[in-house]
Design brief:
Chain B: It is found in: Cell membrane. Chain B: It is a multi-pass membrane protein. The complex is a heterodimer of chains A (about 230) and B (about 425). Chain A has about 230 residues and is α/β, with parallel strands linked by helices. Chain A has one domain: Rossmann fold (3-Layer(aba) Sandwich). Helices cover about 35% and strands about 25% of the residues of chain A. Chain B contains 13 helices and 13 strands. In chain B, α1 crosses α11. Chain B folds into 2 domains: about 170 residues, no CATH class; about 200 residues, no CATH class. The chains are: A alpha/beta (about 230), B alpha+beta (about 425). At the A-B interface, α2 and α4 of A face α1, α10, α11 and α13 of B.
């Protein structure tokens, strides 16, 4: 589903060169729930951004569904992100000036979909995350857990095949974190959505199918969770 | 999508009240000034009552006498020159001779009334399109007989007779009595060739007809058969000027006089166009430059405000990009928002313009001014709004749309 081959990402300033990712090779299969762990600054988020086509690698090959994206234009990349990928961010990144339901409609705004259909899909997504009673609220009127659920609903609204979640429970307490994790697990198990999640939380990572560990921009372990637990 | 953009634009406007105030004030104030200036320009130079057929009219307002030693003097031409030379032109359909208006006194119920008086011929009423509220213009016979008849404007009727009809009534102006034969709608003072309070037959000044000097205190209005004849009239006029007899060749070696359109007359007077070139092109360039500079400052200001405003929303740009918005879509969104903001500013500007025009009309700063938002002025206003919105919105939107999604999500640090 997502293939990364020999990915390198180097940040250069006038005086310093920082290697964020060093020769990363990774294949995420359809329906997998992959968690990525590692210390801060080891390149996890950079990797997720490259997988989500939000960032370009300095060198290497990225393919979605077997098709390389290197030569894609800005418009083609936008279309691919819109149709295939949903994002969940640690700090939610909701648009404060829009209501919950308007936030959730966002991915559908860039598709040829009628306003009625858009609203219907958004309400369905909110139903899935248990927030159908908060549709008219604004993000500032919600708790952290509720905001993250709105963010998940937004990621779901476009019915993407892949969800990329960057520390989705990082800003939440354990109860709310577990609630969010349950929603993600349900999506993966019941709807077959492929999920790649960056996390610092070993407990959360152990709930997924596959755990990849990173250190200093390099992949140091890649194992199925059952094996990792053994 | 448009509804979503407008919804968010409205929310941003409400959230950032100070920024909204600064932006709207800048836009509406600038537009107000431009609209009022445009309206004044239209009022002075556009086709307005009674000079409606401006595309067929030329005006002779000046005669310049140039001496060999650099001496030069100029002023309105004389009746003699206009009657002997200009009236005899073959190309025009009609030529009217009329005097420069003079300020005279009158007394009504022991109260002094200052009025402007103009002497005109019959052709004046045929060429110009006055709106008669009562009665008629004076006839050819009345002009030939130097009858003491007068056409007065609405304001003068009000002062003399209140709301009562004026036809057949007598007025005394400069100790001369006239019978009122017509009442016309007030003409703004900006229309120098047709404006007055009281119009009387030109033959009442026939003692001046015999004076054979070339300069005096009269104007001519030339009406062409069709707009395309104006250049031909100018050519014939130029040929005629070479044949004008100079009575005092010791003092005057060359004569300059040109039939100009209203705008050419103004450009020649203000910018000193001496030759055939009336400087109207230069005048337009100056106007365009002034308007450009006037708009440039608020536009730059708006661009800056917009950049910081959009910068604050870099996270939103990042999210929109992450969920499928291309750079073009982002530009579109911010341009729509900005045009929306500018249109609100434009509407406010229109409202302010109406207020200012109402004040000017009622203040008497410009006598009988009747400034208003006609369709042309309104269209100009809308166009200016759009230009404003696009100029101040496109650049910041373009700049921000180039932001990488990851950078935008981090807060647009790059």
């Amino acid at each position: 589903m997502i293939q990364l081959q020999d990915i390198e990402k180097v940040y250069r300033t006038k005086t310093i060169e920082t290697v964020a990712l060093n020769r990363v090779n990774l294949l995420v299969e359809r329906g997998e729930f992959v968690s990525i762990m590692g210390p801060s600054g080891c390149g996890k988020s950079t990797l997720l951004n490259i997988m989500g086509l939000l960032d370009e690698p300095t060198s290497g090959y990225v393919a979605i569904d077997g098709k390389p994206v290197k030569t894609h234009s800005d418009r083609q990349l936008a279309k691919l992100r819109n149709e295939k990928i949903g994002f969940v961010f640690q700090s939610y990144h909701l648009i404060h000036d829009l209501s919950v339901v308007d936030n959730v409609e966002l991915p559908l705004l860039y598709r040829p979909v009628s306003a009625g259909e858009r609203r219907k899909s958004a309400l369905e997504a909110l139903e899935k995350v248990g927030l159908s009673t908060r549709t008219k609220h604004f993000p500032s009127q919600l708790s952290g857990g509720q905001r993250q659920r709105v963010a998940i609903a937004r990621a779901l609204a476009g019915n993407p095949e892949i969800i990329l979640a960057d520390e989705p429970t990082g800003n939440l307490d354990s109860v709310m974190g577990n609630e969010i994790m349950d929603i993600l697990l349900r999506l993966n198990q019941e709807e077959g959505t492929t999920i790649v999640m960056v996390t610092h939380d070993e407990h959360m990572a152990l709930k997924t199918n596959r755990l990849i560990r990173f250190f200093d921009g390099q992949q140091v372990a890649d194992s199925m969770v059952i094996e990792a637990q053994i | 999508m448009l509804k979503n953009y407008i919804k968010i634009a409205w929310a941003v406007l409400k959230r950032r009240k100070f920024f909204t105030f600064i932006s709207l004030f800048g836009i509406s104030f600038t537009l107000m000034v431009l609209m009022v200036v445009t309206s004044l320009f239209d009022h002075a130079f556009g086709p307005q009552m009674p000079e409606r057929q401006t595309e067929r009219l030329l005006f002779v307002n000046m005669m310049r006498e140039q001496g060999e030693q650099g001496y030069s003097s100029s002023g309105p031409p004389s009746y003699y020159f206009l009657d002997r030379y200009v009236k005899k032109l073959q190309t025009p359909e009609k030529v009217s001779i009329n005097s420069v208006f003079t300020t005279v006194n009158s007394y009504v119920n022991n109260q002094k009334l200052t009025l402007d008086l103009k002497h005109t011929d019959r052709a004046f009423w045929e060429i110009l399109d006055f709106e008669f509220l009562e009665g008629r213009a004076f006839t050819q016979q009345e002009v030939a007989n130097a009858s003491h008849v007068a056409v007065i404007n609405q304001n003068t009727r009000q002062k003399y007779f209140g709301d009562a009809p004026a036809i057949g009534q007598r007025i005394e102006v400069n100790q001369v009595k006239y019978t009122v034969v017509g009442v016309v709608k007030d003409v703004p003072v900006l229309r120098l060739n047709s404006y007055s309070d009281v119009w009387v037959p030109i033959t009442l000044r026939r003692n001046e007809f015999l004076n054979d000097r070339l300069r005096g205190s009269f104007f001519a209005i030339i009406q062409a058969r069709k707009p395309g004849d104006l250049p031909k009239i100018k050519e014939e006029y130029a040929r005629m000027m070479t044949q004008v007899e100079i009575k005092n060749p010791k003092d005057v070696s060359t004569l300059y006089s040109f039939p100009d359109t209203i705008l050419e007359t103004f450009a020649r007077t203000t910018l000193g166009g001496r030759g055939e070139n009336s400087n109207v092109g230069y005048f337009y360039t100056l106007l365009a430059l002034a308007a450009f500079l006037f708009m440039l400052l608020p536009t730059i200001n708006l661009v800056n405000i917009n950049i910081s405003r959009i910068m604050e929303r870099s996270s939103e740009i990042g999210v929109r990009k992450a969920f499928g918005a291309s750079s073009k879509v982002i530009i579109g969104q911010f341009v729509v928002e900005n045009v929306f903001l500018t249109l609100i500013g434009g509407l406010l500007g229109l409202a302010f313009s109406l207020g200012v025009m109402h004040l000017i009309n009622n203040s008497g700063v410009i006598a009988y001014a009747d400034l208003g938002l006609n369709v042309r002025v309104f269209a100009w206003g809308l166009l200016l709004c759009l230009v404003f919105g696009l100029i101040s919105g496109v650049y910041p939107a373009y700049k921000m749309s180039r932001l990488h999604a990851v950078e935008a999500l981090r807060g647009g640090s790059k």
